[in-house]
Amino acid sequence: MSNRWLYLALPPFLLVAVAFMLVQLFMELDEDSVDRKAAERLTLYRQTILGEYQKYRYLPYMIARDPRATSALGLGQPSESANRFLQEMAENSGVDLLYVMNAEGTTLASSNWQEDLSLVGRNYGFRPYFSAAIEGEEGRFFAIGATSDEPGLFLARPTPVSGKPVGVAVVKVDMGPLEEAWAEGGETVFASDANGVIFLSSQPDWRYRTLTALPQEVRQMIEATRQYAGRELSPVSDSLDQERQQLVIDGKNYRHNSADVGLLGWTLHFLVPVEETRKSVLPIWAATISLCLVYAVIVLVLRGRRLRKASALLRQESAGLKELNTRLVEEIQERRRVEKELLEAQRGLARSSRLAAVGEMSAAVVHELSQPLAALRMFVAGTRKFLEKGDTETASENLDEIDSLQMRMASLTQELKRFARPGESRIEKIDLTESVRTAEKIVRPRFEETGCLLKLDLPSDPLEAETAPLRIEQILVNLLRNGADATAGEEAGEVKLHAQRQGTELVLAISDNGPGIPEDLKERIFDPFFSTKTSSGGMGLGLAISMRLAEDLGGSLSVRANTPKGAVFELRLPALSGEKASERASNSAGDSASGTRTEREPEAAE
Fold this sequence. Notes:
By secondary structure, the chain is of the alpha+beta class. It is about 50% helix and about 20% strand. The chain has helices spanning about 1-65, 65-75, 80-95, 130-135, 175-185, 215-225, 280-305, 310-390, 390-415, 430-450, 470-485, 540-550, 580-595, 600-605, and strands at about 95-100, 105-110, 140-145, 150-160, 165-175, 190, 200, 240, 245-250, 250-260, 265-275, 430, 455, 465, 495-500, 505-510, 555-560, 565-575. It has a 6-stranded antiparallel β-sheet. Keywords: ATP-binding, Cell inner membrane, Cell membrane, Coiled coil, Kinase, Membrane, Nucleotide-binding, Phosphoprotein, Transferase, Transmembrane, Transmembrane helix, Two-component regulatory system. Its main location: membrane.
């Protein structure tokens, strides 16, 4: 009798054992699923933070370069014109504050100069962003405003952007809208700084609290910089287990995932209630208990009413199948819902990628148009002086140059729009020496500004090629301007352009006697947004665009070390073949004999 009961009890014990193993397995699967979702969300949130940072990163650099904003530094006292300019820039760019400080950290111009809490006259030399910028670096610092008591991200650049800084240009960006977007998303996410202080959070009560207790020296450093304006900075977590990814806040247990933001040195945290990692436990135990109960009923039915209760047993089994079918239908609906959410997330990531592509193209437009704009400013200034002296002939020549530059800029924007479709550019038979001299006119103001010497070594014979002249000029302008920037700090800075024909190729070598390019950076020098101009704030697009243009024209662009120092950029292009050159010469002779002249098309002439 005891053996019989043992055999009857064996199946429920096996079911419980199997259920226990399934619970452990599905808990691990649920945790992996939550971690994958957390990784995706953290990547998206990280991109939103970096996108907000990159959106305003250029602004302090532009302010530092603009004499309208930095005029107060030359006067040594507040300037109303500088205040009005910063106020207009802040309103147009959407930033919270724009201000300029002198070398001692005293604010001489600010966008809020007319408000009660104006920054003009206040000293912020104790802020880390000021210390970094006055040392010639880019300052980045999130803090609560010492005057306004409002939080924001402070971005700073030295002015002037090259040479010894005499002041600092600062932009304050309000991160509140980003935090509000997090809260509207319904997820638990927050960002902490390098010291573990939470400063952005979808839960407002967690803001300005810490993950763990701060050491005394860290607290003293935060108080010295007045980063969080005397906030208590008390721990928000009851316990933190990094190994098990467990975090307890206000008695609630969370699954904890984190990711580094990168450039800003912040850490993003994504929390999911532990209950979501155990959602498969209850159905498994419910199914196990149900099966045990069904088993007990079956045993009792077979024991008491073997034959007469056979139909009742079938009805119970049918009910069990119906319940299982219902659960299957619910699981299918749940999977469809999850798939829909994943599809929406993928679409969101695709939109973010498109926005990033638009940002890169905008940066390229700014980079390429800044050089002709600089030349335009020089010609306009010269024209005014010639008109004041009554030299209308020279002024007229300058106006011709200005008209040529604006036509070039119009063509240049069309070229940037067609950057991804190089086949649409106009191909002509040209003399590369003409392109060299056109590029030399554009970059000449930059060489005069830096005091560097530009030498052209051109052959007497024409360097004929069948190519796109405007793109060649773009490449040469980028390389010559980079050479001027590289030699700006040298005592006798010199850039030399040597052109010659080597077999079936035309070779243009631009060499300088600057500091050169480190060996470990030569592989990355042509990558987009990579730049060695730490002091001048180069955006790292010129060489990437030049490399692309050279390859599109069937040529190549390379770099090597110069002797005794500096770098040599070598542009190689296919030369016009002898047969084509002869054909062109005969056509020119025929045109001369018939008394006609062949004109270049407008785009090539420009």
